[in-house]
Design a protein that fits this description.
Layout lengths: L19 H14 L6 H24 L6 H4 L18 H25 L1 H29 L6
Helix pairs in contact: 4-5
């Protein structure tokens, strides 16, 4: 039979969430004991990534020539003067084909690592990859039957 344990709660409990001074003290102790060196590679990766994206633009803005004239500032459309509205509507099929291309392109790109490690994956890995290829084939045939790939 289990014994009941009596717990006494007092105002001098080890941690009172309404005691701000104690909370601040514990936070300072935690940050002093924290090892920040393990986050240095992540911080360095983020800084290098941001600088690779931003620095070429800043350098180009500073060093690049800026000699605007009316010909450079005018809209250019294949050698013709601009005509019509630039915000013309595209057919929905264009977006559908683009989305389907991206979907199947990414799925096909994921098949390459699977094929490289197929020997290590064994029969189970082969069957899982075969399942993925079957699902992709069924989706492709379904799109073909529904006419999603017909441009007309």
């Amino acid at each position: 039979m289990a014994k009941a344990v009596r717990v006494r709660v007092s105002p001098t409990a080890p941690f009172n969430m309404f005691d701000v001074d104690q909370y601040v003290k514990q936070s300072i102790e935690y940050t002093e004991n924290m090892n920040i060196e393990q986050y240095l590679p992540v911080l360095l990766f983020i800084l290098v990534g941001i600088s690779v994206g931003v620095m070429p633009q800043v350098i180009g803005y500073i060093l690049g020539p800026n000699r605007p004239d009316p010909a450079k500032n005018s809209p250019y459309e294949c050698g013709f003067e601009a005509f019509g509205d630039a915000r013309m509507k595209f057919d929905v099929r264009y977006y559908l084909i683009a989305i389907l291309f991206i979907l199947f392109d990414l799925e096909t790109a994921l098949l390459f690592p699977w094929a490289v490690t197929l020997k290590d994956l064994g029969l189970y890995g082969f069957l899982v990859g075969l399942e993925i290829v079957t699902i992709l084939t069924i989706g492709f045939v379904y799109m073909w039957i529904k006419g999603a790939l017909d441009w007309e």
